[in-house]
Description:
The complex is a heterodimer. Chain A is an alpha+beta fold. Chain A has helices at residues 7-12, 32-41, 61-66, 114-124, 147-151, 194-203, 211-220, 255-264; strands spanning 16-20, 23-28, 44-47, 52-58, 79-85, 91-101, 104-109, 130-134, 138-143, 162-167, 170-175, 184-189, 207-208, 268-275, 286-289, 292-302, 309-316, 325-330, 333-340. Chain A folds into three domains: 7-48 and 137-220, Gyrase A, domain 2; 50-124 and 235-264, Alpha-Beta Plaits, CATH 3.30.70; 267-349, Aminomethyltransferase beta-barrel domains (Elongation Factor Tu (Ef-tu), domain 3, Beta Barrel), CATH 2.40.30.110. Chain A contains eight helices and 19 strands. In chain A, the strands form four sheets. A six-stranded mixed beta sheet of chain A has the order 10-11-12-9-3-13. In chain A, helix 2 (32-41) packs across helix 7. The longest helix of chain A has 11 residues, at 114-124. Chain B has a single domain, classed as CATH 2.40.50.100.
Amino acid sequence: MRRTALFDVHSHLGAAFTDFAGWSMPLRYGSDLAEHHTVRESAGLFDLSHMGRIRVSGDPAFLDWALVGRMSAVKVGRAKYTMLCHTTGGVLDDLVVYRLAEREFLVVANAANAAVVRAMLGEHANGYAVRIDEQPGALIAVQGPMALDVLGTGADLPYYGIRPDRLDGREVLLARTGYTGEDGFEIYCSAGDAPAIWEWAAARGARPCGLACRDTLRLEAGMPLYGHELSVRSTPFHAGLGRVVALDKPDFVGAAALRSVAAAGPETLLAGLVTEGRRAPRAGYRVLHEGTDVGVVTSGALSPTLGHPVAMAQVPATLAEPGTKLAVDIRGTRVDAEVVALPFYRRTR
Amino acid sequence: MIPENLRYSRDHEWLTEGSPATVGVTAFAADALGDVVFVELPEPGTLVKAGDPCGEIESTKSVSEVYAPADGEIIEVNVTLSDEPGLINTDPYGAGWLFRLRVTGDPDLLDAAGYTALVS
């Protein structure tokens, strides 16, 4: 099992660990609900060093070809949410790509897909003057309405901005990005500096949070998780994320397939569901419409913030409109569900 | 950590001595579940056989079955858990108890030493 630079820090804090894509990662330190609420109300501290970090140097046209977005249009010091698709249009991973300089990009991939992303970028680079390298180091997130107070810097950094900065005297790349639905920052630093930056942020009021609450936070925020809402068997359009595909680019990997889905419209769509009671629809549960099996739940949980179950599900496009009455088979019991617009939770501050 | 005065099932439940017995889940199991957010328990009067699924414990991440640790009749359930399911995490051997069981026959259970060996 692979360990991040913060493994000993997590052990010392008494974390419960889980195997995540071959990495031993903290699932929770104590109560995952308390960790969830901390991120909504003050500031949580996450180790995300398992995520894939790939440095792409050279011709910006390469990423316009390899990815679905128009990366060459991203300004230096800014980031874009995008995807790597198969030629079939299926999603291989969703990514955040930062432009660090005119000819310098940082591609951040899901841990489980990091090897695939590196391999596919390498394959697509044929004919382009680019270098593709793994970026070593650590990744720490500080998320929540008090994140800015914890860091004491970054107020002038726009959402989806990135810049070199110093935290506690240590050089970092500071990005205003996250996966929780709150304001927050992601800190790219060296492995050697990671424990000191972690302790510094914790001492300034950020509470260590594990992957369990990261999942409920992103679900409430309506954010997709690869392997649940996104897969190689469906396109960005099926996840309601067609906006990330720059269809007007001349050509790119997956263009023909994606243009055809965009023109015809996807047959199924990702929908937000809310249900009564406290039993949550879970990934894999069947979705019913007037008694007929029409779809499948991709993620679901009892929302800690809202107090009722929320779920995302892949359903026929004709049944994805907010207000549509559906049902979910929860372990043999049919529970009424209603389609609602995503996200379930939107921050107000 | 593991109370000496209780009996244990291999499904990580504890029972008090004698009958009726109070039944709950062990701290080991509660820790593994994470924060419990919903508990479904059998109706009082339900007759159960050891190993029968007779309820559910849901945490934020997962759903686990509750198994009857012995043959018998459910005579009372902990109604407080419907409003405060987190008691299973905060006080698994006390206020987080699940139900009381009128035990029939001679159940196959572990003592504290046996359960300690099971989980270590």
